[in-house]
Predict the structure.
Amino acid sequence: MIAPLPVLREEAMAFVYVVRCAFTEPAREAAWNAWYSGPKIMQMLRKPHFRTCQRFKRAAGRGRDYLALWTLQSPDAFRTEQYTADWGFFEWAPYITDWSRDLCDGEDTPEEAFAVPEHGELTIVSFDGSSAEKAAGARADLSKSHPDMMWLPVIGLDRHTPLIGLQVAQMLSAVEPANVPDGAQHALYRPISRFTTTDAAADKP
């Protein structure tokens, strides 16, 4: 059962919505990516409270093959009529597996902090299936090797992980994740779409 969404904090700058999945039909994968990175993002960014989106594909490490990183103005984004009447993967749903939706508290982090340049990468650390106590212990260890990582508590939706770590790099590192604590999934993702904002969606017909 999905837990209730949290109440909006007035001082919050951003909420981070992380969608992870795999795609099982290679013959249709290019068409799915064209749809998701184009019409799907534009459609979602025209809905209330959705602010930005960028998509990624896993290049190394353990994790789901695809990741979409959205920022939201409010958790109310999932309660609006515009969202509930028109969301999901539509014709692509039969090929989507290992799907997870986690809502994180971005606290006062600005939206632009989650933008990854075309030749950059995104490091993701999650603790799927672990307790909050185990995730906190692993975070303490990883913070030594990743001092610039943003640690976001998961506060709603599927809650596959109690905590997600995000680190944006401006250039490709080509370094495989190593020394990952037990219970953690650590992966490098490369962008497969631009960092798109609501303003860009509004300007595009």
Summary: The first strand starts at residue 15 and ends at 23.
